[in-house]
What we know:
By secondary structure, this protein is mostly helical. Helices cover 46% and strands 8% of the residues. Helix 6 crosses helix 7.
Amino acid sequence: MANILPVSPARASSGTAPLADRGALRGAVVLAVVTLAGFGFLYSLAGVGIGQALFPQAADGSLVERGSRIVGSALVAQPFAGERYFQPRPSAAGYDTMALTGSNQARTNPDLRKRLEEARAAVAMREGVAPSAVPGDLYTQSGSGIDPHVSPQGAAIQVARVARARGLARDAVERLVAGHTEGRQFGIFGAPRVNVLALNLALDALAASK
Length: 210
């Protein structure tokens, strides 16, 4: 004889049968599998595929190659040594992509004010100009610490030093800067800017052709 579950007197008097959750576990497992496969795998795979199809360069990290060698990314600043190169913005993260950060210091912080004055004086000495003529982006740090761009003014103030160090005509370097000046994003957002890595690579190519 089959076992019969006991029914409370109140339920028996109401004429209702006890609820059974025989399919609850199966439904939960199926939902978990579908969610994991759909949103954890297929969605990501579709996103990668669409990115590679429509924007392959950006999807691969906007890598910059020199011959067959990768020298950096157009999205990441890197330091350049020597008078022969244009310099990027200072970095609180040491240009480390694993430690993206700004200074996190308030404008009223005396240590910040002191550092800015010292950095501006150092840039002014390097470029042979008055401290008041140094554009702000050459002595302030970006929020990410790896901003690859400087303003057209930040590039222009370095032209004389770079041209002199490389033995190039100043107007040739100025044309190079102008040719690498990017406009506003979609003509609306942001401000004109110059990618320092792209400019320095073009500068090396120009010097090699002489």
